[in-house]
């Protein structure tokens, strides 16, 4: 057993035992809790459970909070990332659910180090929901991998991709975590956002999300992941929306 585990586990067990004692939890209730966790595992929903209980946000803060290097704020990854999407400047294909009022969005910025140096070749990997139907994996109308893609930063550190403005959506509600949300009266909505995973040699990987102003769920994201520094204004030019997001990576230790 690792030293770390040896040190942490007694406290984990003491905390669980204290709660069980304080609430006089019965054998029947405990078995129901174990059955629920078994179901969460079978449904592959542990990341989702960590997210909606705001545990992921806490771990993000414990891992990256207090970083005063000037790097862009991190945020939780969530369960929807898929590895190695294609390199492409336009990260989606049109599909049946898109309406003429849905906005095309250009996201642009630079990738630099905390020392202010451009990081050419940095990989900006993004994923998001479409304006209708949520993530590609939930929506039969969308081709596999829709609203997922990677772009490389240019010589001057600049990057750009074309997408569509996402809308608020609900996390999956048809499994055990959905039942849990219903039981405790927590709504399942997330504000619209774009996920980013940004990598460059000799720099720490940044996982984060970008949000947009005036979203009805900015103040009450079901996973509690909104950070003011990550809410980015949208501007309209030539009929399209634009969003500027400069990314600053911390040098690896
Ligand atoms: C997401 O932002 O992709 C997400 C977060 C938590 C649960 C489900 C999805
Ligand atoms: Fe998401």
SS content category: alpha+beta
Report strand %: 15-25%
Query: Which residue ranges are poorly predicted, with pLDDT under 50 across at least 5 consecutive positions?
Result: none
Cα-atom Rg, whole angstroms?
A: 20 Å
Which of globular, elongated, flat, extended, rod-shaped describes the shape?
globular
> What profile does the largest beta sheet have?
5 strands, mixed
- Succession of helices and strands: HHHHEEEEEHEEEEEE
| Mean pLDDT metric | 96
Proportion in helices: 10-25%
Counted beta strands: 11
User: Which ligands occur here?
Assistant: benzoic acid, fe (iii) ion
Structure in words:
The chain has 253 residues and is α+β, with helices and mostly antiparallel strands. The chain contains 5 helices and 11 strands; from the N terminus they run H-H-H-H-E-E-E-E-E-H-E-E-E-E-E-E. Strands 1, 4, 9, 10 and 11 form a 5-stranded mixed sheet that branches. The model has no long low-confidence stretch (mean pLDDT 96). Bound molecules: benzoic acid and fe (iii) ion.
Outline of the structure:
The chain has five helices and eleven strands. Helices cover 25% and strands 22% of the residues.
Name a few traits of the molecule.
globular; binds fe (iii) ion; single chain; 11 strands; 253 residues; 5 helices; binds benzoic acid; alpha+beta
Tell me the layout of helices and strands.
Layout lengths: L2 H20 L4 H16 L3 H7 L2 H10 L39 E10 L9 E6 L19 E5 L5 E7 L4 E2 L5 H9 L4 E2 L2 E7 L6 E6 L23 E3 L2 E5 L2 E3 L4
Parallel strand pairs: 1-10, 1-11
Antiparallel strand pairs: 1-4, 2-3, 2-7, 5-6, 7-8, 9-10
The structure holds benzoic acid (BEZ) and fe (iii) ion.
The site of benzoic acid has 8 residues, from helix 3.
